[in-house]
Amino acid sequence: MNRLLEPHHHQQSDERPVRMDFSPLKAALADVVAIPVTPFAEDGSIDVANHRALTRRLLDGGVRIVTPNGNTGEFYALTPDERRLVTELTVEEAAGRATVLVGVGHDVPAAVAAAEHAAEAGAAMVMVHQPVHPYVAQEGWVDYHRAIAEAVPELGVVPYIRNPLLAGDRLAALADSCPNVIGVKYAVPDAARFGAFARDAGLERFVWVAGLAELYAPSYFATGATGFTSGLVNVAPAVSLDMLEALRAGDYVAAMKVWERIRRFEELRAEEQSANNVTVVKEALSVLGLCRRDVRAPSRVLPEERRAEVAEQIAAWAL
Asked: Highest taxon of the source (predicted)?
């Protein structure tokens, strides 16, 4: 991965250099941003060998940016030690082949520690999960992200925005004080709101990643996105990359042909407020013999009668 580094000028106890040119990372974000699953062994621990194998499958399939510790990776169900392990495994496998964008979050000290670990492990960027708190002030949102971004000035920082009330000018204010805030994973299911938010924050200032995956990618690309996240890519990398190719070419007819192929699979994931988001992906991987279907609470494996529908959907993709 291309990491352009400049001498360190930030007052930190370590000697990590500060990256001044973030353009390579911005280019890396404008892509299919894969959110890998975290496979579990029979005893419930992380299946290290399978994690490596699944990461290599993504890379061999053409994926060039991966987000360990994303929601499809069951971020909130992993322990801090497990999240560090997932980060390290991903960086090791991706070395020289893909950019690593590590998910961090929870309370500020935990998020800062995870971001610093990501930097030490060799990741290039962090994605900051939406703050999990019943009371989120707009300025408090800025403070939360500033604390994380300032701790790792050499890393690109990508806020994950799920709050429809957040104003675009708050993101601009954050980036004014933290130039390493370079992109946004926008996951509010409203293309018009996204288009307005992106323009209020600065359309050309940030890389806009459609954070609701393939079903929303065409409408978000039409209003300013240049990348999209994907959990489906774990199952069928070529399908996701076909959509990206069509969207980059501005061929929305071709993009919607892909959309039609994957529509039911993604609808299964989105049912009941995305209760089966991870479950359906792991079920598909289980059908393919690539990992166990096991998920952690509060997710749950699919009942027997629904598993056949997942198998039927992926059979049509000729994987």
From this structure: Bacteria
Angle among Cα 101, 104, 106 to the nearest 5 degrees reads: 165
Q: How far is CA 23 from CA 33, 131, 154, 187, 195, in A?
A: 17, 27, 13, 23, 23
pTM for the full predicted model: 0.93
- Name residue 221's amino acid: F
Residues 181/84/288/276 CA torsion (nearest 10 deg): -70
Q: Could you tell me how far CA 215 lies from the centroid of its own chain?
A: 15
Report pLDDT digits (tens) over 27-55.
999 999 999 999 999 999 999 999 999 99
Tell me the per-residue pLDDT of 194-234, one tens digit each, with 9 for 90 and over. Answer: 999 999 999 999 999 999 999 999 999 999 999 999 999 99
Task: Give the residue among 56, 118, 111 at the shortest CA–CA distance from 84.
Answer: 118
Q: Which two tokens stand for residue 221?
A: 């690309």
- Is 299 within 8 Å of 220 (Cβ atoms)? no
**Is the CB of residue 244 less than 8 Å from the CB of residue 33?**
no
User: How far are the Cα atoms of 38, 210, 276 from residue 281, in angstroms, in the given order?
Assistant: 11, 19, 8
Burial class for 137, CB neighbours closer than 10 Å (0-12, 13-18, 19+):
exposed
pLDDT one-digit tens code per residue, 241-257: 999 999 999 999 999 99
User: What is the C-alpha separation between 311 and 280, in angstroms, rounded?
Assistant: 10
